[in-house]
Amino acid sequence: MATKLQASKGTHDVLPDQAPERLALERIARRILEGAGYERIETPAFEVTELFSRGVGGSTDIVQKEMFTFEDEGGRSLTLRPEGTAPIVRSYLEHGMHKLPQPVKLWYWESFFRAEKPQAGRYRQFWQVGAEAIGAAGPAVDAELITLLHAILSEVGTGSLKLRLGSLGTPETRAAYRERLVAYLRTHEDRLSAEVVGRIDLNPLRAFDADDPGTREVMANAPLLLDELAPDDAEHFAAVRARLDAAGIDYVIDPTLVRGLDYYTRTLFEFETDALSSALGGGGRYDGLAEQLGGPATPGIGWAAGVERILLAAEPAPHRVAVCDLYVAGEGVTAFALASEGRRAGLSVQQELAGRSTKGALKQAARLKATAVAVVDDAAGTIHLKDTETGEQTVVPDTTAVIARALKGRHPG
Ligand code: HAM
Fold this sequence. Notes:
This protein is α+β, with helices and mostly antiparallel strands. The protein has two domains: about 20-170 and about 230-315, 2-Layer Sandwich (BirA Bifunctional Protein, domain 2); about 325-410, Rossmann fold (3-Layer(aba) Sandwich), CATH 3.40.50. It is built from 14 helices and 16 strands. It has helices spanning about 20-35, 50-55, 60-65, 85-95, 140-155, 170-185, 195-200, 215-220, 230-245, 290, 305-315, 335-345, 360-365, 400-410, and strands spanning about 40, 45-50, 70, 75-80, 105-115, 125-135, 160-165, 250-255, 265-275, 280-285, 300-305, 325-330, 350, 370-375, 380-385, 395. α1 packs antiparallel against α5 (about 140-155) and α5 runs parallel beside α9. The structure holds histidyl-adenosine monophosphate (HAM). Histidyl-adenosine monophosphate binds near residues 83, 128, 132 and 260.
């Protein structure tokens, strides 16, 4: 026998019993985001590699270690998208969306690919629901996006939520701060972990993320970027906070919040829950990203949240059986015609497909909670209609009569 094949490491099937809760989440996200004027966008599953090395940043783990990269027949380097923001800004620039009324507000529900070590809530192909507002710099956009993600997570019910909020200022402030931080880390090199020391020049901010006790001790007294923000960045951050306060959204200010993408400027945030050890979602401003991708200076902000992580944290939804208005017991041509005509008339129809006897078909119809069952005997040229509630069985003259009766008895909605 041939070896039984399995799904590739870190990928997973979405089985029918998991589909309803994903659909419910998608509907909630769609209602909340489209209600606020965000429009759905889809971008390709792969892009030229340079989009991510320039957009996400060459020093990030994502670009250094986690991209699925391959060459096409012309030797061009392509990459399965590890995230959605750089592709959407690319699309905004490519399609001249700056000519539309600003900000352009977009949302997405797509799969992404990262060659990460798989574990609970961390996969190599995973789905994100995300939103981006491109073309507006004011603090109200930041607060609006945070509030929308908060609304989605609250409606789904993902345990007790914690919003961590920070600000990175401008690239200039960050560069000056970075120098100070590198100098600080160098003076304490002997107490830092080897990994942190190895990354001092590449990504010193990641030292705040380290778990090892020596590094944590050193970082407790490290200079903080939030204390060094330029006045207008500090003002922007205060204005975002004032709007979140006005909306009644709780948050904690986290001066050491680090996210694994280089494009962030100013506002930065992440949602956590007590139901899960990893973040549900996060995002921030990326006012320099459009320019990095060869476009004019365009402010932008957005977030993405992991679909699987949200569902892991959520209470499982009760499994709902699809409505069945009519079960057609019979596999001949009349039965087939009845099923097709019934669907055309707007009924939810399922037909016997497994060669069950009439008794077996009636059992299957009961399992599906069908409202009506038509027993079609092609050889005898008869159709019996059974009302599953009353058990009453009547002879009906033709398929039209079956459909008329089934339409009368169908489930509302
Ligand atoms: P991110 O923090 O890299 O941000 O990913 C957002 C969310 O996607 C995470 O919080 C997590 O829930 C989910 N996620 C990430 N990696 C995995 C994985 N390997 N398995 C399962 N879930 C995962 C971004 O991707 C940015 N593009 C967000 C953004 C939008 N910033 C501005 N606009």
